[in-house]
Write a structure and sequence with these properties.
Blueprint (H helix, E strand, L loop, with lengths): L1 H26 L4 H7 L5 H7 L2 H10 L2 H39 L2 H33 L8 H17 L10
Helix pairs in contact: 5-6, 5-7, 6-7
Length: 173
């Protein structure tokens, strides 16, 4: 019975690794058109308002403690969704920047590599913000600083238009 259980667990692990490899291979960008198809719009102004500490202080002062806790949980959930979109877009920016860098030379390639570095920093910052949000969900008196994510994402998304070839249609955030 123990051998069967070990074999079953090993088969599940191999299946999970195979599924991850297939998903990862499928997730790679093939072209900038693929990039545009996968881009997920992020309302930067709404995200900035959601993570604004002064907005949270205002809500804390003007709502009852129960209403504030309920609304805060909802806001944390929405912030988590925004972070997921920002992370996905940053991953796409990295891949698109690598495509541009491989197919260009000179200043365009340098700008593309700089953009890749910015997108990687953004992904790291999103991961740290997600860890902070989890801590905030567990320890409600702690708050995760998310303003840096909003700022870096906004800058990176706007600057990405400058990395694209002039003939390519501009992206919308």
């Amino acid at each position: 019975m123990t051998a069967f259980l070990i074999l079953f667990v090993a088969a599940l692990v191999v299946l999970a690794i195979f599924a991850y490899a297939v998903r990862r291979h499928r997730a790679q960008l093939r072209s900038l058109d693929d990039f545009r198809a996968r881009w997920r719009k992020v309302d930067v102004e709404a995200f900035a308002n959601l993570v604004d500490p002064t907005e949270e202080r205002f809500l804390r002062e003007h709502l009852s403690p129960g209403e504030f806790r309920r609304l805060r949980r909802q806001r944390l959930h929405v912030a988590w969704e925004y972070l997921g979109r920002v992370s996905q877009n940053a991953r796409l920016m990295v891949q698109a920047g690598q495509i541009i860098s491989r197919h260009n030379t000179g200043d365009d390639a340098v700008r593309a590599r700089q953009h890749v570095a910015t997108a990687i920093r953004l992904r790291t910052l999103v991961l740290m913000a997600q860890c902070g949000l989890v801590a905030e969900m567990v320890l409600p008196w702690r708050s995760a600083p998310l303003e840096n994510v909003v700022s870096l994402y906004s800058d990176a998304a706007h600057s990405f238009d400058n990395v694209l070839d002039p003939g390519v249609a501009r992206l919308t955030m």
